[in-house]
Amino acid sequence: MEERELRRRCKRELRSLKIEPPLRVDVLCERFGESRGRPIRLVPYALPIPGPFGLWLSTATTDYLVYQAGTSRIHQDHIILHEFGHMMADHVSDEEDDQFWRTELPDLSPDMIRRALRRTSYDDRHECEAELVATIVMEWASDLDYTTPHRSDQKAARQLEGAFSERQGWL
User: Fold this and answer.
1) What is the DSSP letter of 20?
2) DSSP secondary structure string for all residues of 22-71
3) How many CB atoms lie within 10 A of CB 163?
4) Pairwise CA distance, residues 117 & 31, whole Å
């Protein structure tokens, strides 16, 4: 997918999820899971170093986004958004991942895991797309965090803010 189309797709998805600034990655994943009819569970895990920082495990009923527990919160958010990018683009795992899962997560049955994605480099087109999605979401969230005024807790005030605001959600 070309960058321009990927940016448009991200924008459409974020608008449809009605995500308000400041960005909360857990809320983004919760709403995306609801829109897909499959819950997304965020799982901090001490992944081996060197190795992948995150991975996406897709079972028959639930998606799991596993991310490096031993890093900063902002890096964790970026890892989660990268895996979210794989989900949004509906990427699939390579068959060569099977041995990795058997070694790193022996308690999980390979039959239970339909798809698993992991990031080890950016050479692959899918890895580049997933990384671009993470970057797009973080850029937009950063822009909106600094340019969107604080929203009132009162409904009437929010309606006025919306009517007079130059910024209307994810641009």
Assistant:
1) P
2) SP-HHHHHHHHHHHHTS-EEEEEE---SSS-SEEEEE-SS-EEEEEESSS
3) 7
4) 21
Report whether pLDDT(138) > 80. Answer: yes
Res. 114 pLDDT band, cuts 50 70 90: very low
Cβ neighbour number for residue 162 with a 10 Å cutoff:
12
Q: What six digits make up the tokens of 83?
A: 């895996």
Please state the pTM of the whole predicted model.
0.70
Q: What is the CA radius of gyration of the chain?
A: 17
Task: Show the CA angle centred on residue 15, arms to residues 10 and 18, nearest 5°.
Answer: 130
- Domain borders along the chain are 3-148
Average pLDDT estimate for 148-161: 62
